[in-house]
Amino acid sequence: MSEKQRIVIVGGVAGGASAAARLRRLSEDAEIILFERGDYISFANCGLPYHIGGVIPERKRLLVQTPQSFKNRFNVDVRVHSEVTSIDRVLKEVTVTDRKTDRVYTERYDSLILSPGAEPVKPPIPGLDNDNVLTLRNMADMDAIKKIVDCNALSHAVVVGGGYIGLEMAEALRERNIDVTLVELADQVFNVIDPEMAVAVQQQLQLHGIKLYLKTSVDSVEQEGGVLHVQLSTGETIQAGLMVMAIGVKPETTLAKKAGLEIGERGGISVNERMQTTDPAIYAVGDAVEVNDFVGGFKSLVPLAGPANRQGRIAADHIFDRASVYRDTQGTGICKVFDIAVGMTGLSEKMLGRMGIPYEKIYIHPASHAGYYPGAAQISLKLLFDPESGKILGAQATGAGGVDKRIDILAVAIRAGLTVHDLKDLELCYAPPFGSAKDPVNYAGFVASNVINGDVSVCHVEDVVGANGDIIILDVRTSAEVMGGTIAGAVNIPLDDLRGRLGELDKNKEILVYCQVGLRGYLACRILTQNGYQCRNLTGGYKTYKATLAAQSPSGPDLVPTMEASSREITSDSGEVDERSKTINTESQATLVKTIDACGLQCPGPVMEINNEMANLQPGESLTVVADDPGFAADIPAWCQSTGHKLTHLTPQAGGKYAATIVKRPPAACPALAESSQAVKQKTMVVFSGDFDKLMASFIIANGAAAMGSKVTMFFTFWGLNALRKSNPPSMKKTFIERMFGLMMPRGADKLTMSQMNMGGMGLAMIKG
Ligand code: FAD
Questions:
Q1: Which of 45, 96, 135 to mutate to test the pocket of ligand 1 (most atoms within 8 A of CB)?
Q2: Which of 290, 362, 561, 639 could cross-link with 264 by S-S, CB 3.0 to 4.6 Å?
Q3: Options 46, 525, 599, 640, the catalytic residue
Q4: Range with the lowest mean pLDDT among 299-303, 372-376, 383-387, 520-524?
Q5: Contact 531, 354 (CB under 8 A)
């Protein structure tokens, strides 16, 4: 094809602007005309929520290029407020309406690139045509939302939809100190990942004061006296000054349909790997097109900026005979939700199940970097892989740091067709501030290949929940951790005691082992397996168990259960009043005795610190602990509930930290605690038999109880007193009767006999042996 081409582009943002710039780099001669119906080109739509939230204060920062700067740099004829309304494929012309002057004209093309994007979905809900019900797609939408937010009269907003834009908008509005209700139709937010992984996101929303409705729809919206009355499917009505609709986008295909181009099964424009539509002179890129899923091979719609930019470049390449091809989309994405990030790549478990693709999964919860270096935070990572070959199929992660790096590595691994075995060998950069000598990605590789190699079998939450009496559920965490919650029916033998207490476990039963995150469970499994027990380790441990149950809860996950009352009177780190703070209950008389800095420790580290420090406090005294592990915010309410201590404050702080203040309560304040940790932990045994075997049995039971942390008292009476008699007692004055009894009774344990099968002392000798 000649280089003196006339190329017309429809849409001047991600895909369109990318294509235009690449075209010019490939040909100085080409005539390039870019039509954009809005006022701006090449603006940062991904940055729109952050300008509303105030994180990007300067609006002009969002304008990456202006028509003039684009002309100067790339010599592209940019025409804004110019809408392309039709395509004549025979004449190779587009019809354009200038929205400012209403002038209608045509432009000829040799090649046409469509990058019209996607439009927000607006369901037929009565009342959506209201000035205060808005969607967010471009600068004009952002300006309209910001105008309402900036007027200072807005106290409450409703965000509908918990996807990327909904989450970012909820955070942005909250950052502006507006009360936010987020309404989501599905049973989880961020539907592209699996429900148990979304729980951390839901918890973040709740921690930051967002009222979350799952499995709920908006039925109608009415306006009365300037206030929106948002009617929910739950029957509740929420009053708000603004409602942002963010329930998804659909490909903008009006032009393509009108021109008779093929539309695919998912509703996007059909293209080949060179981004050509069914008309070879017309290319389509970005949110408007359907792509092949890289892992599953099925058709998919993935409205993300990365694919749009790459596709724009590939279309330009092909116009100038370059051999670039688009190699499918794997859905790599990330979203910031207050203090954490949530990211994923490849297919989710839901999707693998739906497509009938066999998979195995593991969960790990390692630190983002070396735990001893400040700022380490727990990452929760789920890895999905082929159970036979170990080929990586998908990954999801949440955490306060390092999520992007791990998801990016795994995205490359998927793209390169790597297996979990390869992950073990990846040489990744390491110094304490950045990672660990065994990076979470290596670690995921170790865990997953252990499963494939048969070094350890894993079980999942559904196995534990469905376990019957033929299965032992073994908790190998410490007793302090158990106080923060446990699995019903589990036997607790801390890992370090396991070797000495193997005899307590029935070899004929399968054992499902768990710890907090999976590592100690793995070690326990290795001990058990090598001692002839059949066992499986709960992947992800109690943390994943809790998240899975929370995700399945019919009432939706209530992850911050003790946050009943909300007041806005808590002072933050900096001494300023933190408007986002939540006061649970003041118990203001409590004297603050100590502040613990547990930053850098991952759960259960902060909880263990509190447990230790609590022992030194008097009832009524309190301590504050500051931690930077988001898991802490979820664990501490459960720990307080279990121990009976009072959580008075749980406050998000600057820098992704959380401060919890806990008042020590006397055991009587918590019947569960009194019973579990005091009464049951103080055991008294009455030993009234003088039979050697019964005496031995009572000592064995007493030792077992002491090993479980109980304080045991043994009270000897009647014949049991004989065991305590000394063989050479000091001389004492006794009556005749007392002396007679003394002569008849055995003197000390050595003289006791068996209750049965004494066999002239042989039975006794054997049991002593
Ligand atoms: P767009 O960038 O939307 O551009 C399409 C343009 O075409 C529009 O400006 C439109 O006015 C114009 N147009 C449409 N029809 C016509 C016509 N007939 N004539 C003339 N002009 C027309 N993606 C990420 O990967 N990460 C993020 O963090 C992220 N955040 C986002 C936040 C928000 C608020 C939004 C709205 C999107 C976000 N995205 C994000 C998605 C990303 O912006 C899109 O995937 C990407 O912009 C798609 O590029 P595109 O060229 O297909 O469409």
A1: 45
A2: 290
A3: 46
A4: 372-376
A5: no
The answer on pLDDT for 33 being more than 90 is yes
Answer yes or no: is the C-beta of 295 below 6 A from any ligand 1 atom: no
pTM of the model: 0.81
Q: State pLDDT tens for residues 118-135.
A: 999 999 999 999 999 999
Q: What is the largest CA-CA distance in the chain?
A: 132
How confident is the model over 389-430, as pLDDT tens digits?
999 999 999 999 999 999 999 999 999 999 999 999 999 999
Ligand 1 centroid distance, CA of 708 (Å) = 61
Q: What is the DSSP letter of 498?
A: H
Report the b/e string of 251-264 with b at 16+ CB within 10 A: bbbebbeebebebb
Q: Is residue 457 within 8 Å of 536, Cβ to Cβ?
A: yes
Nearest to 206 by CA among 621, 528, 637: 637
Evaluate: CB of 13 within 6 angstroms of ligand 1: yes
Which atom of ligand 1 is least distant from the CA of 288?
Answer: 52
**How far is CA 359 from each of CA 241, 452, 514, rounded to the nearest angstrom?**
46, 11, 22
Report CA-CA distances (Å) from 294 to 104, 300, 408, 423: 42, 10, 15, 19
pLDDT number for residue 717: 80
Query: How many whole angstroms from 308 Cα to the centroid of ligand 1?
Result: 9
The question of whether 46 is a catalytic residue gets the answer yes
